[in-house]
Amino acid sequence: MKADYQAAADYISSKTGRTPETGIVLGSGLGALADRIGDATVVPYRNIPGFVHSTAIGHKGNLISGTLGGKQVLAMQGRFHYYEGYSMQQVTFPIRVMRRLGVKNLFVSNAAGGINSTFKVGDLMIIRDHINMLPNPLIGENDDTFGTRFPDMTRTYDREFIRLMEEIAASHGIGLKKGVYVGLTGPSFETPAEYAFYGRAGGDAVGMSTVPEVIVARHAGMRVFGMSVITNEGYHFDDDFVNDGNDVVKAADRAAETMSLLFEELAVRIG
C-alpha cells in the first residue's frame, strides 16, 4: 500500500502543484463548501490512482485543491463508505494520501441523526468524541511510517480547534451543539430501539461514516475537527415518521452555507 499512497500523492501533486495545510472531508449534501475554495483545481476521483468511486447520494466524487480564507486546502467533495462494499483500507485511503501530501489538519463533516432530544433538524453539532461501531481501519499490519501500533484516542478531536470554533460561532451569533457521534455501518437507518440504545450508551447523534477517517488521521498524527449536521430526529416516532435519504441530503444542503462559513474561518484561525 505504501507505493499506492505515494502514487496517488504524486498524481495529485502533479495536477495541483500545491502543498495543502488542511484536508476537508465533505459529507452528504455538504459539497457546497467546495464553491468557496478559490483558485480551485478539480481532480475527479476516477483519475486518481487507488481512489474508488463514491456512490452515495450527495457525494460528487471530486478532490478540490485551492485556497480557503487564504490557506491551502484539499477538500474531498464526497467520501467513501463501508456500506458501499469497500474495505476499510479503501475507505480511508484518501486520508493517508493527504498525509503524504503534507496535510496536518483534518476537518470532517457529516449528516447525522439526532438522538439527543434537545437536538433539532438543522442543528450543527461539534463532535467532541465518538463511539466506533465499525471495523477498526487499523486492523492488520501496522504501517510504522504513519504511526504507532496502538495510537492513543483520548483526545481524538482537537480541543483547541473546538474552542476556536466555539469562538467563531459566537462571533456570528450561531448556536452550536456539542456531542458524541456514533459511527455505524449502515446502509439501513436505525430502528427506534437502536436509536434509544445508542442514546443510553452515551451517543448524541448517529451516522454511517467519519470515524474510520478520524482514526486513521489520528494514527498519522493529524489534528482533527469534526462537525455533524442533524438531518433527522431519532427520538420521537409518530405514525408518519420515516427516514429518507433524500430528506437527509436536503436538510444537509440547508445547513451547508453556515457550515462553510465556520470551516473557512477555522482554517484561517489555525493557520
Considering the chains and any ligands shown, give keywords for the structure.
about 270 residues, alpha/beta, about 30% helix, 6 helices, globular
Task: Give a description of the structure.
With 271 residues, this protein is an alpha/beta fold. The chain has helices at residues 2-16, 88-100, 159-171, 192-200, 211-219, 245-270, and strands at 22-26, 38-44, 62-68, 71-77, 105-114, 124-132, 177-183, 205-207, 223-233. The chain has a five-stranded mixed beta barrel, surrounded by four helices. Helix 4 (192-200) links the parallel strand 7 (177-183) and strand 8. It is globular. The model has no long low-confidence stretch (mean pLDDT 92).
Write a short abstract of this structure.
By secondary structure, the protein is of the alpha/beta class. It has six helices and nine strands.
